[in-house]
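name: query_chain
kind: protein
chains: 1
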Amino acid sequence: MKKISFDTKNGYLLLNDIIIAPLNEYEFTKIAEENNIEIENNQTNTYVHNLSTCGSLNEFEFGINFTFENYFMTSVWLSWDGGNTKKYGHNTTENQLISDENSLASLLIKVLGKYPDEIKKTFSAFNFSWGNISASASLQSSITSIGMSWKRVD
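structure:
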């Protein structure tokens, strides 16, 4: 299992201490190939591409989805298949999903060394000069995840 880490000073996501995000799609696939990081390609016939792999952050295991628009990485989602979602699937209650989101927010507090800048019922955001990292629960999809997105500089 690949180890996930964050460089919050520079806004990087790392796998096994290798910068993997944010990169353009060409750099991303080249670095993944050079470092034997298996990537699943979920391309469509549109300008949006999704590439995915898996990894772990402390004791939590995630599916990692990298979203590219016009070959530019726009976001990364670490979907947690653990907690109540793993136990109950789509029968997970709202309170159970919120509990799972709180678990991810607590994990981020520990990993990032700071408290969220914004807290809502199903969302906790940690803001940085380059963008944000968030923990969220989707009631519609019955999933909890960590998201990372960057401010767009044109």
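note: The longest helix spans residues 94-112.
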